[in-house]
Amino acid sequence: DQPRVLLCAGATKDMGKMLGGEEEKDPDAQKKEEERQEALRQQEEERKAKHARMEAEREKVRQQIRDKYGLKKKEEKEAEEKAALEQPCEGSLTRPKKAIPAGCGDEDEEEEESILDTVLKYLPGPLQDMFKK
What is its main location (predicted)? Predict the structure, then answer.
């Protein structure tokens, strides 16, 4: 019979809390919570330090591979490509528009007229007169 009494006593205590009765305040609850938070922060710092060490080891291995095969980092490769694009080449096929000399492709009408004049020179006289009108 005694175990039943203990079970009921424990259950009654919890039931009182559930029904909105006053909770027993633990005087060390705040201190325990602060310790728990500090432990969590410390674990997180240790985890970050561990990952930083692992990444440093990986980077060391990557650098050894780059050195062995003469490869470059992605950032270095992008920087070189960007510099190559900014620096115009002497014999480049693509050049800025303002670098095109005057008279090269700007006046389409004049070129058409000169072609027409050239064709007219080779036509017989009566046909030349027809086209000139």
Answer: cytoplasm
